[in-house]
Structures are given as C-alpha cells and as structure tokens.
Design a protein that fits this description.
single chain, 216 residues, alpha/beta, Helicase, Ruva Protein, domain 3, 7 helices, 4 strands, 46% helix, 10% strand, Arsenate reductase ArsC, Ptyr_pPase, arsenical resistance
C-alpha cells in the first residue's frame, strides 16, 4: 500500500482522504504505475485544483478524480490504449462550452469513445446556466468540475477541440486540432445559453460521425 507523504498544509481529514485516494488508485493501476508516480499525480492534482477550489473538503475527492484521468492519459501515452478515440475539449474557464461539449459527447458516445475537458484559466465552479441548459436535454453535468489541462492529457488525445482559448491552447505537432468559434456563456442567462448549447450539440454529432463512433 502507498504511504502518502505527510502534507503539513492539510488538515488531518484531508490527509486521510488523500491517503485513501492513493490506496484506491494504487489498486486500480496495479501493474501499470508504482506508488511514487501515483502519489506524485495525486498531490500535484490536488495542488492545481486548490488554486481555485472553493470547498476545501471536496478537494481530495476531486484530486482523486483528476489524478485518475491523468493516469489513464499517461497509460495511453505509454501504449496502454484500449483503442477507443479520445477527444479533448478546451476552453478558457472549463466552466461552460467545453463542459457542455464533453457532456454531449459522453451522452451520445457512451462507452464507445472517451471525452476529457480542460481550461487555460479554469474557474472555481461550473457555469450554472450551462448546467441548467444541459439538464433541459436530460444531461447532468452538475458533478463536473473545472480543471486545467496537463501534458499527458493533451498528448493522449486523438483530437483536440479548442473554443476561444487562443494562443494559450497547447499545440503538439501531428495532433488533429479543431477550433470551434462559439460564444462564451459566461454571464449569460439560460435562455441565452440555449443557442450555444444547440450549436455545440450539432458540432459534437458531426465530430462523432467523422470519428465513426456509434451514438446512443
């Protein structure tokens, strides 16, 4: 079992939660990554999310989820791929456009493909109007959380879709990039977000067709 190193900046409860998370991840990635790698990814994920986290008690759980995504990405980069296409949706805050795109992609593709998202300057919470507009379509993104992108996540993606992050978006030679010119839903009402949502759905469906991914 991993023995997560002591973090003096964390409460006892937070340290315990991270230790539990490290043990869980160690079980999931046994034979793929060692303790040192898992703890490094878990604690660096915590530190990145803590930059904007509003509710410290939730950060260990979110750090575990983010670390799991990053470790899955690293495994793909190192050749442990299951063959499913991976699409990464990037915007500025990872609170609206990229979250809605990921929501549609996951809903339509189910287990046939993988979708991730990130932001160049990620926000502290998901845009409530984006959550509400997606709920109207029967898709729940309320449990998602804004997060940055990392090198292994970008490298593992087959397609990177950018939405307004401009020069801040990471560029890797040989990777397929798509730029979707979409209005930013920040500060908009649910009524104003609906046209953005609908355009995102159209583009996601088109992308899935291009990737020959069966949809639900």
């Amino acid at each position: 079992m991993p023995q997560t190193y002591r973090r003096l900046d964390l409460s006892i409860d937070q340290q315990h939660a991270l230790l539990t998370a490290a043990r869980q991840l160690a079980e999931e990635f046994a034979g793929t990554f060692g303790t040192e790698t898992i703890e490094l990814f878990l604690h660096s994920s915590y530190d990145q999310l803590a930059l904007h986290g509003k509710i410290p008690n939730y950060l260990p759980l979110l750090a575990e989820r983010f670390a799991r995504q990053r470790l899955n990405a690293l495994a793909r980069v190192e050749g442990h791929s299951d063959g499913r296409p991976v699409v990464l949706f990037l915007c500025v805050h990872n609170a609206g456009r990229s979250q809605m795109a990921m929501g549609f992609f996951q809903h339509l593709a189910a287990d046939s493909a993988v979708a991730w998202s990130g932001g160049s300057g990620f926000a502290s919470e998901i845009n409530p109007a984006a959550v509400a507009s997606m709920a109207e379509r029967g898709i729940d993104i309320s449990r998602e959380y804004p997060k940055p992108w990392t090198e292994e996540i970008v490298r593992a993606a087959d397609v990177v879709v950018t939405m307004g992050c401009g020069d801040a978006c990471p560029i890797y030679p040989g990777k397929r990039y798509l730029n979707w010119d979409l209005d930013d839903p920040e500060g908009k009402s649910v009524e104003d977000v609906r046209p953005i949502r609908d355009e995102i759905e159209r583009r996601v469906r088109r992308l899935l067709d291009e990737l020959e991914v069966p949809t639900a």
